[in-house]
Specification:
The complex is a heterodimer of chains A (about 525) and B (about 260). Chain A folds into two domains: about 25-60 and about 310-475 and about 495-520; about 80-305, Jelly Rolls (Sandwich), CATH 2.60.120.200. Chain A is about 40% helix and about 25% strand. Chain A contains ten helices and 21 strands. In chain A, the strands form five sheets. In chain A, strands 5, 6, 11, 12, 13, 17, 19 and 20 form an eight-stranded antiparallel beta sheet that branches. In chain A, strands 10-9-8-7-14-4-18 form a seven-stranded antiparallel beta sheet, with no helix packed on it. Chain B has one domain. Chain B contains eleven helices and no strands. Classes of the chains: A alpha+beta (about 525), B mainly alpha (about 260). At the A-B interface, helix 3, helix 4, helix 8 and helix 9 of A face helix 2, helix 4, helix 8 and helix 9 of B.
């Protein structure tokens, strides 16, 4: 409040400003002196932490020969990556280029993998099988790279550093319509080109790979990600069946300029020994016929979204805490109606909207703090236990971690405020708890935890119901260049984290606004 | 006992909230079932969906309304101190609770039957139009089909058992808001926690012994051999939960002052 309005306003207004502080103090006193509410809030916090720790302690990552340590490489951007491919390479110095023509690309699925004898194979179209040229800092997994490639059904692409992806020529490479690919290195800068005829070249993209060593490895690569078919859904989450695939590509007219003289092509299986059962096919290798190279590979060069544990996997207890604070939020107003205390409250402070505001501030503050301690405790305490048990926890940026922790705490607080609003509207604690719990928890249950609804209906429910708010805890983004089942039951929400949270806030805001209106209109 | 029954029936019948809640339970069950059926389609045959289960999806929401009614039956009396009057007039506390349970079960079974019939009709009409046809291996849903009849009767029984479970929990907790919070947490949270924990051991236990997941096994009509618990055994598990809650509630009801 400015000085000018102070002089214009009535003398009572300074008092009413103090009055709001008093009101806050009164509501805080009510909250902390009712033992059940304080206990419920603390229990909500502790359950969140303890269940997180319990989950970490009981998720032993088992390999056939006992507990295993599973190494998840990280890319230059800090994200977990899968980096497995067959690489036919030569050294390349500071400035140079590599050019080749992809004349065929075909894949097989390996089925009936048995310890005895080779797997049976059947031809298949693997949409994100890749065959092309790559320049990589060194063959260590997770190192910086830039590549141009022909793919199974996504045309020519240029990809770099695992997450970068740009589209080139459409269509599939074949002997009749081969795809010409070229990478030109100039210091740290690598430019990718494609061409249908080898004479007219189009730039797909230019990327800078800072800190590239003077001599890098350049050559031909082939990868072929595991295919997976989402199978039955149920309480165990959607299980998927699948298997490794192999892709074979023919490269013609391969030429490399800028390599040291006397070097020759070497074949390497990069990231060969992996724990994931579907990573490497058995047939990787290459052979040369005249100018042509026939290369077979398996795996993928892409962000990893299936082999690790996301940090929000430690938040099982948050759901119990959520229901506890919803009960407290509903009781914070309905208990006053039940005991007739609301008349005393409104007699002491006749401006009813302010009473509701004071209640909202106290409730929101307390539940946010309890949520913050609970969620941060669960994630930070469970993390070392998960790692000690051989799980790979997906690395996330500090910003994402702050968003998940503070956002989930805010989700808990906003749910309590939603219950406060509905409680003031219905004036019945039972009704308010039932409405808020079914509105927030039931859509999540039916779509994510125990998926009984088809994916389309699930996405729709998670856009329009308050359960959209759970999007705030999603940490693994959807990547268009990684084929996976991006459904709520796999932890992918249809709305962006803050957008989903805004939907929940919208519900709470409408409930509180209606509550303020009705509180003023109705007799207590 | 007849007097107790008559008294409880009068209380339940004359509260306007009872008829509203029962109406809401039936209407919401049918509405959600119809919405789920409208959202499901089977364009090519051999789909993973179980048409009977889809048709009864509304039970997931209907049970919450039934739980509210059941909690109110006992907690409402504590809120208005009516309970002292009730117990002064009928000192036999177990017969009071039994009379409450009996009238509640009757009303919920009736409502459940209407809700299930409505859901089945809606599901039958909508699913046939969405590819669940005899040509795709799905005969139209009819009560003449043994498993469908079992799923329909079982869903109504499921609602009655949820009412009894809620009555028992509310008798233990007495305060209505925490009581409904506990009931809904018990029903909805078990599968969520199992899913988030990603622990095969817990999945297994919760699929078979949690009240909602076990009880709703009664709705399955396809792939019966892959069910973690057989339909009637699952409903039996829920009955066990309800009996346990009522026993504990009855014991505390006798021991504590009102």
């Amino acid at each position: 409040m400015t000085d000018s309005t102070m002089t214009l306003s009535r003398p009572g207004d300074t008092a009413s400003r103090d009055g709001f502080a008093h009101l806050l103090h009164a509501e805080w006193t009510k909250f902390r002196t009712i033992r059940g509410w304080a206990v419920a809030t603390v229990v909500a916090m502790l359950v969140t932490i303890l269940l997180g720790v319990y989950g970490g302690a009981h998720s032993q990552n088992e390999c056939p020969s006992g507990p295993c340590r599973f190494f998840l490489p990280t890319g230059p951007g800090g994200e977990a990556v899968t980096d497995t491919f067959y690489f036919v390479h030569r050294p390349l110095t500071a400035d140079g280029s590599i050019t080749a023509q992809v004349t065929s690309l075909s894949s097989v699925i390996e089925s009936d993998l048995t310890p005895q004898g080779p797997a049976r194979t059947q031809p298949a179209l693997v949409p994100w099988s890749k065959a092309g040229l790559i320049v990589t800092a060194d063959p260590r997994r997770g190192s910086a790279y830039a590549a141009v490639m022909a793919t199974g059904s996504h045309g020519v692409r240029m990809q770099w550093n695992y997450t970068g992806d740009a589209a080139g020529l459409a269509g599939r490479a074949s002997a009749a319509s081969p795809r010409w690919l070229r990478l030109i290195r100039s210091g740290d800068v690598i430019t990718g080109y494609d061409s249908a005829d080898g004479t007219r070249w189009t730039t797909i993209g230019t990327v800078s790979l800072p800190g590239l060593t003077p001599t890098v490895q350049a050559g031909l690569f082939v990868t072929s990600p595991a295919y997976s078919v989402p199978a039955s859904s149920g309480i165990s989450g959607a299980s998927a069946s699948g298997g490794p695939t192999d892709t074979t590509a023919t490269f013609d007219r391969v030429s490399l300029r800028g390599g040291p003289s006397g070097s020759s092509w070497t074949g390497t299986t990069v990231g060969g020994a992996r724990n994931s059962p579907y990573a490497t096919g058995s047939e990787a290798g290459y052979h040369r016929t005249d100018d042509a190279y026939v290369v077979t590979g398996s795996g993928d060069i892409a962000p990893d979204i299936s082999d690790g544990t996301p940090i929000d996997g430690s938040l099982a207890g948050m759901f119990i805490g959520l229901i506890a604070v919803v009960v407290v939020g509903a009781l914070f107003i309905t208990a006053e109606y039940r005991r007739g205390l609301i008349r005393v409250t409104l007699a002491a402070s006749p401006r009813r909207g302010r009473v509701l505001a004071a209640k909202a501030i106290v409730l929101g503050g307390v539940t946010f703090l309890a949520g913050l301690i609970g969620v941060a405790g669960a994630i930070w305490l469970a993390d070392p236990i998960l790692r000690a048990n051989g799980n790979s926890v997906y690395p996330v940026s500090t910003l994402t971690e702050v968003r998940v922790i503070a956002g989930t705490a805010a989700l808990v607080a906003v749910a309590a405020l939603f219950a406060l609003g509905i409680g003031a509207i219905l004036r019945s604690g039972t009704g308010a708890v039932a409405v808020v719990v079914t509105a927030i928890i039931l859509p999540y249950l039916l779509t994510a935890a125990f998926p009984v609804l088809p994916a389309g209906a699930a996405d729709w429910l998670l856009r329009v119901t308050p359960a959209a708010g759970f999007a705030i805890k999603q940490t693994i983004p959807q990547y268009p260049q990684v084929a996976a089942s991006y459904t709520p039951s796999q932890g992918y929400f249809p709305l962006a984290p803050w957008a989903g949270f805004a939907v929940l806030c919208g519900y709470a805001a409408v409930a509180l606004a209606l509550a303020a209106f009705l509180l003023r209109r109705r007799d207590a | 006992m007849r007097h107790a029954l008559n008294a409880e029936w009068t209380k339940l019948r004359t509260l306007s909230s009872t008829s509203w809640l029962l109406l809401a339970a039936a209407a919401l069950t049918v509405a959600v079932s119809a919405a789920a059926a409208a959202a499901t389609s089977c364009p090519a045959g051999h789909c993973a969906e179980d048409p009977a289960k889809i048709s009864f999806t509304g039970i997931y929401l209907g049970q919450a309304v039934v739980a509210v009614l059941a909690v109110t039956v006992i907690s409402g009396e504590y809120g208005t101190c009516m309970i002292r009057l009730t117990l002064a007039a009928m000192p036999g506390r177990i017969s009071v609770l039994a009379a409450k349970a009996a009238t509640l079960t009757g009303l919920v079974l009736l409502t459940g039957a209407i809700a299930v019939a409505g859901s089945l009709l809606a599901g039958r009409a909508l699913l046939t139009g969405h590819g669940f046809t005899p040509a795709h291996g799905y005969p139209a849903l009819t009560l003449g089909d043994g498993p469908v009849l079992r799923a329909a009767i079982g869903s109504a029984l499921y609602l009655a058992l949820i009412a009894l479970l809620s009555l028992g929990v509310a008798t233990v907790i007495r305060d209505p808001a925490p009581a409904i919070g506990t009931v809904l947490g018990l029903l909805y949270l078990d599968p969520i926690i199992a899913a988030v924990l990603h622990d095969a051991h817990w999945h297994n236990i919760i699929e078979r012994y949690a009240p909602m997941t076990a009880g709703l096994a009664i709705q399955a009509t396809t792939n019966l051999s892959s069910l973690p618990i057989s339909p009637w055994a699952g409903l039996g598990v829920l009955a066990g939960w309800a009996a346990g809650a009522l026993l504990l509630g009855g014991l505390l009801f006798r021991l504590r002052d009102a």
